[in-house]
Every structure is written in structure tokens, then in C-alpha cells.
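Exercise 7.
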Amino acid sequence: GRQRPDLLVLLPNDRKIVVDSKAPLSAYLDMLETQDESERKVHLKRHARQIRDHIKQLSGKAYWAQFEAAPEFVVLFLPGESFFSAALEEDPQLLEYGVDKQVILATPTTLIALLKAVAYGWRQEAVAREAKAISELGVELYERVGVFADHFGGLGKALERSVDQYNTMVRSVESRLLVTARKFRDLKSGEWREIEPLRPVEKRPQVRDEG
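Solution. The predicted structure, written as C-alpha cells, is:
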């Protein structure tokens, strides 16, 4: 039947880990209540069998069919180290059997370690995302600085051309226009104010060398 996860751990890239804590523990509790050694062995064997059967049940499609992206594996949580060690003592192949069925046995200690590893993975994923975003932003900024520098260089060239044109006009006005105009002043037939000579612009903008 359809199983309900007790805990769903999200992994990067939209992957999931299902945690199931419904492991049958009745046989183990029965073992604790009896003083008869032969009965204890019977209950211990039954406990290992219950855990193995539950692994087999979890390995079916009960969990995998519920998710669009199938879980990486299912964690079978045992609420104490003693439950785990007792089952493993009776059935040493239990861990290997679970791995083959994509079911991992976990005690409180190992589950906490697993969750810490997942948290570390998320932190690394966040760092990777931030590094990628910084890299993309750096490329975009570099391109924009390049465009700005091209515009700025174009403005410098335009200023340089303007200075050249201005100096050419200064030379033309001085040599062809003002030299004639000043001859009126030399005739001294009236009051003529002094026409100051036009001076070329000496300072030139520094333009980036495109070569």
C-alpha cells in the first residue's frame, strides 16, 4: 500500500531522501521482557526477521511511486543503537541486504551524521550558486566597462578632431582674415581697437591606443 514518509530530506538538484521510522520493534521488546534464554533467542531471531521483512517492504514501489523524482534511497530509522546491534548480531548480512534494496539502516547517531552531511551539501550548493552568480556578474560588468570605455574613447577622438579643426580655423583666420583687417588699423584714419591674436589650443586629450 501507499506509505507515508515520516521525514523527507531534500537534496540539491531536486533529489530526495525518505526517512521511515515505522520499524517493527515488538519482537525486541518481547525479548527484553523474558528471562528465559531460549525465548530470548527466539525473539531475537524474530526481531531480525521483522527488520529484514520491513526492508523488503520499503524497497517496493510504496515510496518511489509517490515522487516525480524517485528518492535516492530510503532510510530505515531505528530509535536506538541496541535495536540495530541486536538485529545485526542475529543477521550479519542485514546491512548488505538493505543496500541492495536501496534501504539504509540508521540509528540516531548515523541519522544525525547523514542530516549534517546533507546540510553541508546545501551550504556547498549555495556557495557554488553564489560563485556562479558572481562570475556571471563579473562577465556582465566587464562587458559594460568595455562598452563604456569604447564610448569614452570615441568622445576623446571627437574632442581631438574638434581641436584639430579649431586650430586649422585659427591658422586660416589669422593668415587670411585678421591680417587684412589689421591693415585698417595701420592706416590710422580712425580709432581702431586692438584685435588680439587667436591662439591655437595646445592641450590635447589623451586617447587610448587601440593598437
